[in-house]
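Q: How do we represent a protein-ligand complex in a form that can be generated token by token?
A: Start from the inputs.
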Amino acid sequence: MYTNEGQLQFPENFLWGGATAANQCEGAWDEDGKGMTIQDCLEFRAGNISDMGKQFAFSTEDLKKAQTNNDINYPKRRGTDYYHHYKEDIALMAEMGYKVYRLSISWARIFTDPEDEKPNEKGIEFYLNVFKECKKYGIEPLVTLSHYDVPLDLINRYRGWYGRECIDLFVKYAKVCFERFSDYVTYWLTFNEVDAMLRHPVTSGGLIEDQFDDVPFEQAMYQAMHHQMVASALVVKMAHDKYPNFKLGCMMTKLCFYPYTCKPEDNLATQQRMRSIYRYVDIQVFGEYPLYLKKEIANKGYTVAFEDSDEHILKDGTVDFVSFFYYMTSCWAAKTDDLELSPGNTFNGVKNPYLPSSEWGWQTDAAGLRYSLVELYDRFRKPLFIVENGLGARDVLAEDGKIHEPYRCEYLKEHVCAMSGAINLDGVDLMGYTWWGCIDLISESTREMSKRYGFVYVDVDDYGNGTYNRIRKDSFYYYKQVIESNGTNI
Ligand code: BGP
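Then emit the structure tokens for the protein with 6-O-phosphono-beta-D-galactopyranose bound:
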């Protein structure tokens, strides 16, 4: 167990809070003019899937089925019905004392069809109401513009982000969000997990493998990533030019691999694997493709089409802060054939014999958070923001009508210690912390409801049965106490 070293202390203005994403909680998938997104087409996958190939397999046939067949279990369509419960949910966040709430806007609510000339006023009204509710309680919104919900029209017309057309359409969407929400929102993230395309192209970019006969699929992914990089930089620049008070961040998947042994070959292999998680964040922070990424693409025999202005665009659109997810760590080695693997939500690593595993096999590691914070700060020298951290578990509604989850409080405690250590002993500039899935929501990778992260239990099962009532778990009161004491009473 990781405990605090030195005194527990957090800056006065530290932003404590929680995080959700539109596609995992809103539901109301076809209400008030919302267009369909890729998430509305993803079927329920029962059980604990550690085979990444199966987890993300998706074909044009699946896409067609989703557009014509409503009988299949598509959990993201109903989420936790936040669309109709947001007032209650934000009131619960306020009760815990949140200073910040990370949420995402669904592009398809703002533009039913991304090519519509005018935005959907009903969609704008919904988010305005959400932001007003936050303001009522003094909660600062932190908004992700794109969290894995590519509009279906872009997939059907342009093969998702492979089409350069997406860039201008995304900028148009961001412009509307900035104009209409600028009285309420200061903190923005452009894309959730900027590096994710190369691990799960369907949810990240709307790229479906069987649609790419004309180009190697991996090359298509690099191209689509490039389009997201350009789109993100244009949006950051637009914000900096017009809204000097805005703070724009990137969001990265902070995976962390330790060498499985001290053999130099294992260290080298691990260094390579670690580099692969930084390749796109490097662009958003430093404003250019790192040489190692250019080599990687060239060595595979691929090309990425640049337009003349792209280099300047990337240079002009660098971010103000670096945000990231952190859940777990694992190991890596030069040869992994005979080693036991451990799953994460979108990748596999080698199992670390020194760490405990969650029910989904994720190896929890609070010391690794401190390690990661130092690593990120040393690399980027930018303020950091932990925008996802948490523990997914099969919480049970006990006979006393309550949910007792000491494991979640323990996980939180250890990670608070790690943050304090990084801030006070290691000199890391950390802006805030938003717990992932602060109110239960649908799992991103397995689309289950059974995998719960929240401080608040939502009474619904994997098939949508239940009252959708919200019930405070034990961890609700624990996190309240953590925030009240600014991280000192844990
Ligand atoms: C991140 C995603 C989130 C979230 C989280 C937990 O990759 O940004 O949307 O869901 O992982 O993953 P899961 O829901 O698969 O447990």
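The chain has 16 helices and 14 strands. The chain has a mean pLDDT of 96.
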